[in-house]
Amino acid sequence: MAPEPIIRHATEQDVHTIHTLIHELAAYEREPPSTIQATPSTLLNTLSFPSSSSSSSSSPSTTQPSGFAKCFLVVCPPSARKEDEEEAEEVAGMALYFTNYSTWTGAPGIYLEDLFVREAYRGRGYGKALLKELAREVGRIGGRRLDWSVLKWNKPSIDFYESEAVGAKMMSEWVGMRVEGEALRRLAGGKEEG
Questions:
Q1: Closest of 94, 121, 114 to residue 14, by C-alpha
Q2: How many CA atoms lie within 13 A of 54 on its CB side?
């Protein structure tokens, strides 16, 4: 049996790794690097991080309230690392998420913004491990559901999400909507603040 990966909340020291993972995700999603506006600085200012250095995934998460989202990192277990990387922590992927709220359930939930596992680590159960940790986090906050979106062309991910291993169902009656850029400024009735 393969060793279990380590899953932990990202800390301020992980911001550059998260930024790199976002760029790798963009490449996987066939998006040019120029579409990424996030920088290490914006991530540092907008993510929540554990308030203490002992952020075990089995304990309730306590994060600084200043950020808007949180990030779990999946770390390759020491026994599964390459020989020359025994000392360095090998981050295999991430799950970047934030809380939401459902008027139907009258309870909070979690929206998974991005789930990404580096290609070299796919097929080891790391994506499922991240989803399991998110499901636990939903329970810790008293939530009722975990939501996310997936690109229509990403059939391998859709098949995985709909499998018995995950049990997700496609919400085909819903259509995603977004307002951004100039349209958002017009909708707000003026200039964008910043």
A1: 94
A2: 2
Apex 95 CA angle, 8 and 3, nearest 5:
50
Q: Within 89-154, where are the H helices?
A: 126-140
The pLDDT tens digits for 62-112 are 544 579 999 999 999 887 656 655 567 899 999 999 999 999 999 999 999
Q: pTM for the complete prediction?
A: 0.85
155: how many CB neighbours lie within 10 A of its CB?
10
- For the annotated catalytic residues, the residue numbers are 161
Lookup: tokens for 156: 């391998």
DSSP assignment of 169-183 equals ---TT-------HHH
| Two tokens, residue 151 | 């690109």
Q: What is the DSSP letter of 53?
A: S
Q: Which residues are registered as beta bridge partners of 146? A: 110
Cα angle 66-15-38, degrees, rounded to a multiple of 5: 80
Q: Rounded to a whole number, what is the distance in angstroms from the first to the last CA of the chain?
A: 51
Instruction: Report the alpha-carbon distance of residue 30 to residue 151 in Å, rounded.
Output: 11
Residue 115 CB coordination number (10 Å): 22
